[in-house]
Specification:
Elements lengths: L8 E7 L7 H12 L4 E7 L5 H10 L4 E4 L13 E2 L1 H6 L4 E5 L2 E5 L2 H11 L8 E5 L3 H12 L4 E6 L4 H14 L3 E6 L12 E4 L25 E4 L8 H8 L3 E3 L1 H17 L5 H12 L1
Helix pairs in contact: 1-8, 1-9, 4-5, 4-8, 8-9
This protein binds NADPH dihydro-nicotinamide-adenine-dinucleotide phosphate.
Length: 287
């Protein structure tokens, strides 16, 4: 009789809502291509306030790891034994690695962004960057850019929650050498001349709000700028369309998403997945 191994190796995502999270299609496509036939990615709806219970279950069932998404990224910090330096600065965890009950917290959102930037041939060192938004994605992007030597960061955020922008600026000033400004976002924002990189790190334009775009004066976007969106779906947002119209080079949030998912897989399995396979699976899932 052939030797069989039916034991499942579990990873997944804790979110609320969780149903629209595309992690399962991207990660399971990668597992299949790597020949990891017993690896499963579970999409799990965990109510706010129940993350602690879910973590107890994760340890009991020997999950190898988990992604945390809205609203659990900050609360996850409470349950972590070891924190990666950038996750500590960002103040949020999107990836947990379980080594026999010892939980390590990582944040791969910003790392996925940085790989996308570098793949486009852009080095952030010495660059002037404008980031729209001050939420979780913006924090991850800003911390990684600052650690990579960006010279100047302008954070543009609506003054709905000043504390969010102020706490981010405090973290950056206390822990990195970047010069940083905060601009309350009230009117169409004019991108300063001399900006090298412009990032939309808000949720504006995410499916199903596919016609929405950040309120900026697009005539201040120039062909000298590199423009990056964090929105993964749709891949070509109105924000990027406007940038392209002004001759700017641009990249979608889809690459960032695939990069961070690939990093998760390597952290959990020790293997390098095929990003082409992952991208194709994601494109098929959202088309
Ligand atoms: P948050 O809710 O933490 O932050 C969203 C930010 O956008 C906040 O600063 C918010 O301001 C701002 N914002 C929302 N609507 C508007 C508006 N109409 N005008 C101006 N500002 C606005 O979300 P996340 O940072 O976690 O996620 C943001 C986006 O990033 C999501 O679409 C998510 O899909 C994407 N993302 C992509 C990743 C990738 O790998 N490609 C990884 C992680 C996230 P306020 O707080 O005042 O509402």
């Amino acid at each position: 009789m052939k030797e069989q191994d039916y034991l499942d190796h579990l990873v997944g995502v804790f979110g609320h809502p969780a149903a629209e999270n595309p992690g399962v299609v991207i990660q399971e496509a990668a597992f299949r291509a790597l020949g990891l036939k017993n690896w499963r990615f579970l999409t799990i709806d965990v109510d706010p306030g129940k993350l602690g219970d879910a973590i107890v279950g994760l340890k009991a069932m020997k999950f190898r790891g988990i992604n945390c998404t809205i609203p659990h990224k900050i609360e996850a910090l409470k349950y972590i034994d070891k924190l990666a330096p950038s996750a500590r600065l960002i103040g949020a965890v999107n990836t947990i690695i379980n080594d026999g009950g010892l939980l390590t917290g990582e944040n791969t959102d910003g790392q996925g962004f940085m790989i996308a930037l570098r793949d486009a041939g852009i080095s952030p060192a010495g660059k002037k960057v404008v980031v729209l938004g001050a939420g979780g994605a913006a924090r991850a992007v800003c911390v990684e850019l600052a650690l990579a030597g960006a010279s100047h960061l302008t954070i543009v955020n609506i003054p709905r929650d000043m504390a969010l922008g102020e706490s981010l600026i405090k973290i950056l000033k206390e822990n990195t050498a970047v010069a940083v400004d905060y601009v309350p976002w009230v009117d169409a924002y004019k991108v300063p001349a001399g900006t090298d990189i412009l990032v939309n790190a808000t949720s504006i334009g995410l499916y199903p709000n596919v016609d929405a775009k950040p309120n900026i004066d697009y005539d201040t976007v120039t062909k000298a700028m590199y423009v990056q969106d964090v929105i993964p779906n749709p891949a070509f947002t109105p924000f990027l369309r406007e940038a392209e119209r002004r001759g700017a080079r641009w990249q979608s949030g889809m690459r960032m998403l695939i990069n961070q998912a690939a990093l998760n897989i390597t952290m959990w399995t020790g293997l390098e997945p095929d990003k082409g396979v992952m991208l194709k699976a994601f494109e098929e899932a959202v088309s």
